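Data deposition worksheet. Section B asks for the primary sequence of the deposited chain exactly as it was used as input, without tags or linkers unless they were present during the calculation. Section C holds the resulting structure in token form. Section D is free text for depositor observations; keep each observation to a single sentence. Incomplete worksheets are returned to the depositor.
Section A, Depositor: J.P.
Section B:
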Amino acid sequence: MWYERDVVKKSVPQKPGSPSELIDARIRELGDWRGETLSRLRTLIKQADPEVVEEWKWRGTPVWSHNGIICTGETYKSVVKMTFAKGASLKDPSGLFNSSLEGNARRAIDFHEGDKIDEKALKALVRSAVALNTSSSA
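Section C:
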């Protein structure tokens, strides 16, 4: 006997979009303060470095690169974590780094709901990371 369920097809997984499209989708999917925060961080990164390249790595992590990884934007239940690949080598006069402080390479900034972003200091940190990547690739 013919049943309606037999003709209802599941959507076929489509080829993944560009990294930028995947990041857009992640922001929409979050749909809360974490998506808003990730979106704002993304905007600030692009303002700080108009040549930044967006990537999608490690099964779903937004990554921003320029001659190497600048930072990642990870989202968790109660935090949006911005991890700088070479953060330990960066000067942080505004004291933005508040996580992963014990490592030899990385440093991170954890943003919690309601946190205010020091946009000027964050853009300066992104520019410093780009300068470090650019100098070490020469």
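Section D:
Helices lie at 19-30, 33-48, 119-136.
The chain has three helices and five strands.
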